[in-house]
């Protein structure tokens, strides 16, 4: 017997189904408006988005289930995290990328390397084994470590262990070559350097192939730290082996831009070269070899720093390496005679000056960073000072430094370079200190029996000229825009101008009359010259406040000297001449100044 038909229930079911379809379409439209699909070009494949799953079919309501209770599908919790994401992998680095396994592996490599060094040294001291056995044993241990590195790296989780084994193996082989050269004399120095070049080059080549900076750093650091323990003293051979490491590491460092490798390769050479300079000074042996090797290592450091700066301008280690590289060669000058030492320092200054000038003369603004060329210019200035003071006697230091300061000031004005002006200020400061100590000390102005002579005339004039030229150039370049700095510099410049002109005047008078009458005439001339210059500044400063203020200050200083020093020091006719001439000049200046002010106000 068939069930009765219910047309009303069927109609309700169809209506509910249609409503469900409409709700689905409405939900799709809302999703499209909220998250519009990304536009793609025809034929472009979406790689970053997973394929969208087909929408679930709308729920259909069977006629017979109208009266049943409908349950919505469970909505996943948005804040829930899948179990896969909750689990932290065991290989995740701890701290700065160091896992326990990596820490153990590299510590084991360092301890093994130190054990090899101690074995080599102790075997030599106590006569254990034979030299051939020691060399072959070191080579065999290095080969075993390298074979283990390749085997461990191929297994699961063996990356850090393979890196540590490889770095330790190459370091053992390198130290074995050093020992064969230094301790046992099996290899000449050139042969040992060649063997070291091959071994270190193999280690750096492997790090390049594996793209592993830890291997490169481990090889270079292990060799650099342990090589001095084998050589026993900081000599030319040690500097040569460390410079060889720097040379081998350069292509890989430039290729990948590994900053840690750059620092590890450059720093040991500089330290060893400085220690070699000190050791040669103390022991007095092997001067020429040390100078030659240290000079070559410094040149290599400058070249590597330059290439690094050109190829990777963002690498700040290039500037640091450039600053450190010339230091050892500048410290070798006491090992040479004065002409050769001065020539060596001058060569360093010339090379760095060319490097600095390439930014301006060759227009390499886009190739060399500004901080790199600035550092080159600063070190060139230091080397030039050393060359100047080495080639000349102490009596000519002030004259030479002040002349160089004047030339740098003109160069700053020509190149529009504030950095050059800063160098001129440093030269002027050092030259002025030398002048106050040796050429024109203050006692020459207050004691009759002391005279500076012709050198005092020249140094005094140069001091005054440089003291005027540097602030004027600073104003032209716009670097004296801050009032406190400008006032301080101008005040200091004014004091130096007064002292320089007074010293030059006294020295000039003393050349023609080196007695008390010349001393009195010199001070009268100084006072009158200051008063005349002050009046000239006042007349020029009618419309310029700065000149008027300078004139008033100078006039006050001149009158103070007249009443405090000249009145107490001068006697007889010299005192009368000083006061009469000063008074007459002031009277004439007052009349002239009043007339100029009245004419200027009438014209205005």
| N- to C-terminal distance | 129 Å
Low-confidence segments, given as residue ranges, are: 1-5, 38-56, 58-96
Radius of gyration using CA atoms only: 41 Å
Rough shape?
flat
Task: Specify the structural class.
Answer: mainly alpha
What is the total tally of β strands?
Answer: 0
Give a short account of the largest sheet: none
> How many helices in DSSP terms?
22
What does the average pLDDT come to? Answer: 78
* SSE order: HHHHHHHHHHHHHHHHHHHHHH
Strand content of the residues, in percent? under 5%
Helix content: over 70%
Multimeric state: single chain
Transmembrane segments: 103-125, 131-150, 162-183, 189-207, 214-230, 236-254, 261-282, 288-311, 318-336, 342-362, 369-389, 395-415, 420-437, 457-477, 489-512, 518-539, 546-564, 576-594
Pfam families: DUF2339
Region (Disordered): 27-94
Keywords: Membrane, Transmembrane, Transmembrane helix
Describe, in plain words, how this protein is organized in 3D:
This protein has helices at 7-34, 83-86, 100-126, 131-153, 159-182, 189-210, 213-231, 236-256, 259-283, 287-311, 317-324, 326-331, 338-361, 370-391, 397-415, 418-439, 443-446, 453-477, 483-512, 516-540, 545-569, 573-603. It is an all-alpha fold and 604 residues long. Among the domains are: 392-514, no CATH class; 533-604, no CATH class. The longest helix has 31 residues, at 573-603. The chain is flat.
């Amino acid at each position: 017997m068939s069930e009765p038909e219910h047309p009303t229930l069927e109609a309700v079911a169809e209506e509910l189904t249609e409503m469900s379809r409409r709700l689905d379409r409405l939900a799709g439209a809302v999703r499209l408006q909220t998250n519009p699909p990304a536009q793609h070009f025809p034929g472009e494949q979406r790689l970053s988005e997973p394929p969208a799953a087909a929408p679930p079919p709308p729920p259909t309501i069977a006629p017979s289930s109208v009266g049943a209770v409908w349950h919505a599908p469970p909505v996943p919790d948005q804040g829930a995290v899948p179990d896969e994401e909750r689990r932290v992998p065991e290989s995740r680095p701890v701290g700065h990328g160091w896992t326990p396994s990596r820490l153990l592996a590299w510590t084991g490599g360092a301890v093994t390397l130190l054990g090899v060094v101690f074995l080599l040294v102790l075997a030599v001291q106590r006569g254990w084994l034979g030299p051939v056995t020691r060399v072959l044993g070191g080579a065999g241990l290095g080969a075993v470590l390298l074979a283990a590195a390749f085997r461990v790296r191929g297994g699961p989780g063996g990356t850090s262990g393979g890196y540590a084994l490889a770095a330790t193996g190459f370091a053992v082989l390198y130290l074995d070559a050093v020992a064969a050269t230094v301790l046992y004399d099996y290899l000449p120095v050139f042969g040992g350097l060649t063997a070291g070049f091959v071994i270190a080059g193999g280690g750096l080549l492997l790090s390049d192939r594996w793209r592993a900076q830890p291997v490169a750093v481990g090889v270079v650091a292990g060799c650099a730290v342990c090589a001095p323990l084998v050589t026993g003293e900081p000599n030319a051979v040690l500097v040569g082996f460390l410079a060889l490491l720097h040379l081998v590491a350069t292509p890989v460092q430039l290729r990948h831009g590994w900053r840690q490798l750059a620092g590890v390769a450059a720093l040991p050479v500089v330290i060893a070269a400085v220690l070699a300079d000190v050791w040669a000074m103390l022991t007095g042996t092997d001067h020429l070899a040390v100078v030659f090797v240290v000079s070559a290592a410094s040149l290599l450091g400058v070249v590597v720093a330059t290439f690094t700066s050109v190829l990777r301008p963002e690498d700040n280690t290039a500037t640091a390496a450039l600053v450190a590289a010339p230091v050892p060669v500048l410290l070798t000058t006491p090992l040479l005679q004065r002409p050769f030492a001065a020539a060596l320092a001058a060569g360093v200054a010339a090379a760095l000056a060319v490097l600095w000038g390439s930014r301006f003369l060759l227009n390499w603004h886009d190739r060399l960073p500004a901080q790199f060329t600035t550092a080159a210019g600063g070190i060139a200035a230091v080397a030039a000072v050393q060359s100047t003071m080495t080639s000349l006697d102490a009596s000519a230091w002030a004259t030479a430094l002040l002349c160089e300061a004047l030339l740098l000031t003109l160069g700053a004005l020509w190149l529009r370079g504030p950095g050059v002006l800063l160098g001129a200020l440093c030269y002027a400061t050092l030259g002025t200190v030398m002048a106050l100590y040796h050429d024109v000390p203050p006692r020459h102005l207050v004691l009759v029996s002391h005279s500076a002579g012709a050198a005092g005339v020249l140094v005094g004039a140069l001091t005054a000229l440089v003291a005027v030229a540097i602030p004027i150039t600073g104003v032209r370049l716009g670097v004296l825009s801050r009032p406190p700095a400008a006032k301080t510099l101008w005040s200091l410049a004014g004091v130096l101008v007064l002292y320089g002109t007074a010293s030059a005047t006294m020295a000039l008078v003393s050349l023609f009359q080196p007695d008390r009458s010349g001393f009195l005439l010199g001070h009268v001339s100084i006072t009158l010259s200051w008063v005349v210059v002050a009046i000239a500044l006042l007349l020029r400063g009618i419309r310029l406040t700065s000149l008027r203020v300078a004139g008033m200050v100078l006039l006050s200083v001149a009158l103070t000297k007249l009443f405090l020093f000249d009145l107490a020091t001068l006697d007889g006719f010299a005192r009368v001449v000083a006061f009469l001439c000063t008074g007459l000049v002031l009277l004439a200046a007052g009349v002239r100044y009043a007339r100029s002010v009245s004419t200027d106000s009438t014209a205005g």
